[in-house]
């Protein structure tokens, strides 16, 4: 099985550790993982701002970069959701069809493709799971609080197997953190207020580390945490799953 | 004003924001408890969506069938192409009968048509009889929520309003006292009413009857006492058969307030002897929406308000930040369909979190439609510089060499947003730190550690 590693643009530039953790995690599972070094971005930021027509070149470039892999795996539910759901703006081709079908968020890939929930991780902290919306409601990585279906969560399944972890419940388990891409700029004060409210929920529950499938949500949370010097930190789920030392 | 501007005004009073957020989240939680008691809730939503989809595909036939049966029952049926025609029809009926005092139960359609001010201009008194609506009417405000029109007001504010308007002594925000005073006041209005106006929740094609849902019984009180009943409905309110009604009644109140059913689900079939029953069927842009496949599902809406209650943007910025008759997520997809220029900021007043779509009892793909509206609005709206910036950004992201040359992805992406790069950085930085730029990008690390 040949896996193409898709590292979203902002993770590449601002959070390289998340990319390294994702890569190492997959390598630990004896997979052949390649990071195509000419990759750029999935095109989501322009498309969500309402300029998806301008993202055609980006979309075609993405498909070209990743078409040769059996699976494309990424530490971002949001970018994966975009590839799967919004790559209908270009004419259908074998490459487009393939990447739309084979691109997976890392937790989804571990649990539903590899059928693994125990990755042998150790993380001795009180953790709160911030359910990034595109992963939760877009990719259906778990039951949303609105749905009346049996409870499940691929992220929680993975986290519960981590040695030493204490996964805490929140009062609003899947409310949006307020990042929302361009929303974080165009509605900045609202975005910050939503973020503060989410962080407070984690703080009240005694959480030490907020984790999520999307670094973009966490970047927004981290920005607020650092500004307010709050006693809590963020860690991408791939980093927790790749943590093997106590 | 745009949504961000109005939202920022609302956000200035954090105490009120928290209170508003909590009040609506309480309703959302009640909804969760109620829907989780229904076995097959998701299937019920699916059935409702299928019925609505069938209705929209055969709307012409169902409307004619409804009209034929309603006329047979003795109902007078009127057709209005737009808000003006609707208002004229209602006024004409009232004038022909010399009606001066009107009581009206809740109807978002009459809000949409601006019926109250129109009738008042002709010297007709219109009293909203839903308590929440009466409160905002007294305050000379529009409803801030489609089911809870006065949710933005605290009990103490309502107390002060009643004291000012009715000269009562006041009860320090005691809800029971205030409700009793409102009942006294409304009773007088019911007793002198010449005509009653109601909305329509569901009109049944097969028998020409219709159903009005209220929790206060105010629609019944009005229609039972007055000799003229005028019911105003949008063309999308049709359901084919009586047996479909149960599906919607089970969904409506649970989604709206967490009740198993509205306290009153009143059926109207024909006028009582010696009285008149009119139905005004209104298009007002709906058939245009019907003609746009990507947005037609918004006509499924049964006005339960669940998407407002669940939406963090609505909860934290209030209904008035939308400046549209129907606020919240559903209003943000309906608004641009009626006036794209005026409502062009609404599809962006969302993080696209999708909670609205999951909570919707008739399965409207609300967040997907918000995304689709953005694709229509942005290319038309932005300045030519921003459009150029978006194109350049697209080119950079489609070209690995250019991409690597660009300083940081943040600065690339921030350039095409409304506002200058500096302004956008400032917006981010007002409540948040920027991410620290690491010494090495992932790509460089990868080349060094895996390729060399």
Characterise this structure:
The complex is a heterodimer of chains A (246) and B (452). With 246 residues, chain A is α/β, with parallel strands linked by helices. Chain A has helices at 9-14, 16-28, 44-48, 56-66, 77-86, 94-102, 106-113, 133-138, 154-160, 183-186, 188-204, 215-228, 237-241; strands at residues 2-5, 32-34, 71-74, 103-105, 126-130, 166-168, 209-212, 233-236. Chain A contains 13 helices and eight strands. The mean pLDDT of chain A is 96. In chain A, strand 7, helix 12 and strand 8 form a beta-alpha-beta unit. In chain A, the strands form two sheets. A four-stranded parallel beta sheet of chain A has the order 2-1-3-4, sandwiched between helices. In chain A, strands 6-5-7-8 form a four-stranded parallel beta sheet, sandwiched between helices. Chain B has 452 residues and is an alpha/beta fold. Chain B folds into three domains: 3-7 and 300-381, no CATH class; 40-284, NagB/RpiA/CoA transferase-like (Rossmann fold, 3-Layer(aba) Sandwich), CATH 3.40.50.10420; 384-451, no CATH class. Chain B has 23 helices and ten strands. The mean pLDDT of chain B is 94. In chain B, helix 2 runs antiparallel to helix 12, helix 9 (155-166) packs across helix 10 and helix 16 (328-338) packs across helix 18.
């Amino acid at each position: 099985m040949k896996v193409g590693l898709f590292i979203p643009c902002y993770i590449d530039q601002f959070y390289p550790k998340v990319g390294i953790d994702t890569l190492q995690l997959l390598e630990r599972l004896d997979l052949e993982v390649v990071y195509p070094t000419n990759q750029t971005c999935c095109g989501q930021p322009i498309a969500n701002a309402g300029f998806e027509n301008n993202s055609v070149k980006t979309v075609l470039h993405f498909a070209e970069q990743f078409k040769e892999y059996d699976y494309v795996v990424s530490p971002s539910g949001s970018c994966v959701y975009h590839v799967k759901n919004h790559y209908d703006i270009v004419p259908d081709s074998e490459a487009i069809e393939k990447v739309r079908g084979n691109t997976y968020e890392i937790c989804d890939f571990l649990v539903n493709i590899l059928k693994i929930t125990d990755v042998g991780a150790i993380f001795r902290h009180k953790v709160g799971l911030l359910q990034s919306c595109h992963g939760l409601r877009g990719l259906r990585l778990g039951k949303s609080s609105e749905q009346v279906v049996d409870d499940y969560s691929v992220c929680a399944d993975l986290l519960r197997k981590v040695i030493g972890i204490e996964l805490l419940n929140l009062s609003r388990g899947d409310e949006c953190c307020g990042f929302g891409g361009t929303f974080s700029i165009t509605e900045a004060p609202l975005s910050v207020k939503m973020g503060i409210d989410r962080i407070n929920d984690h703080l009240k529950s005694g959480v030490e580390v907020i984790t999520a499938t999307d670094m973009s949500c966490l970047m927004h949370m981290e920005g607020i945490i650092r500004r307010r010097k709050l006693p809590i930190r963020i860690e991408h789920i791939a980093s927790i799953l790749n943590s093997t030392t106590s | 004003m745009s949504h961000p501007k109005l939202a920022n005004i609302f956000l200035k009073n954090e105490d009120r924001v928290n209170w508003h957020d909590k009040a609506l989240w309480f309703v959302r939680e009640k909804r969760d408890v109620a829907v989780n008691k229904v076995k097959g809730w998701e299937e019920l939503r699916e059935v409702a969506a299928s019925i609505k989809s069938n209705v929209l595909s055969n709307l012409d036939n169902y409307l004619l069938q409804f009209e034929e049966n309603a006329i047979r029952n003795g109902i007078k049926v009127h057709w209005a192409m737009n808000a003006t025609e609707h208002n004229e029809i209602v006024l004409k009926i009232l004038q022909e009968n010399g009606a001066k005092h009107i009581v009206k139960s809740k109807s978002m359609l009459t809000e949409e048509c601006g019926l109250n001010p129109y009738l008042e201009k002709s010297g007709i008194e219109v009293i909203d009889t839903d308590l929440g609506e009466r409160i905002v009417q007294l305050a000379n405000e529009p409803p801030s929520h489609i089911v809870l029109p006065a949710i933005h007001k605290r009990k103490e504010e309502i107390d002060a309003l009643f004291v000012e308007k009715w000269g009562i002594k006041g009860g320090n925000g005691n809800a029971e006292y205030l409700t009793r005073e409102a009942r006294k006041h409304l009773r007088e209005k019911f007793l002198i009413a010449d005509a009653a106006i109601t909305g329509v929740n569901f009109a049944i094609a097969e028998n020409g009857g219709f159903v009005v849902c209220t929790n206060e019984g105010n629609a019944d009180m009005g229609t039972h006492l007055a000799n003229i009943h005028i019911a105003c409905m949008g063309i999308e309110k049709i359901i084919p058969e009586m047996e479909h009604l149960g599906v919607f009644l089970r969904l409506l109140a649970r989604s709206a307030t967490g009740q198993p059913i509205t306290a009153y689900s009143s059926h109207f079939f024909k006028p009582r002897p010696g009285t008149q029953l009119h139905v005004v069927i209104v298009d007002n842009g709906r058939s245009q929406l019907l003609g746009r496949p990507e947005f037609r599902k918004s006509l499924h809406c049964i006005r339960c308000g669940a998407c407002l209650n669940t939406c963090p943007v609505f909860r934290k910025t209030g209904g008035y930040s939308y400046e549209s008759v129907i606020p919240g997520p559903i209003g943000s997809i309906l608004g641009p369909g009626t006036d794209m220029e005026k409502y062009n900021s609404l599809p962006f007043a969302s993080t696209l979190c999708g909670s609205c779509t999951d909570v919707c009892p008739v399965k409207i793909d609300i967040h997907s439609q918000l995304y689709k509206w953005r694709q229509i609005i942005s290319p038309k709206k932005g300045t030519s510089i921003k459009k150029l910036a978006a194109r350049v950004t697209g080119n950079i992201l489609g070209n690995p060499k250019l991409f690597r040359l660009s300083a940081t992805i943040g600065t690339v992406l921030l350039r095409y947003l409304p506002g200058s790069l500096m302004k956008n950085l400032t917006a981010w930085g007002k409540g948040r730190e920027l991410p620290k730029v690491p010494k090495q990008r992932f790509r460089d690390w990868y080349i060094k550690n895996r390729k060399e």
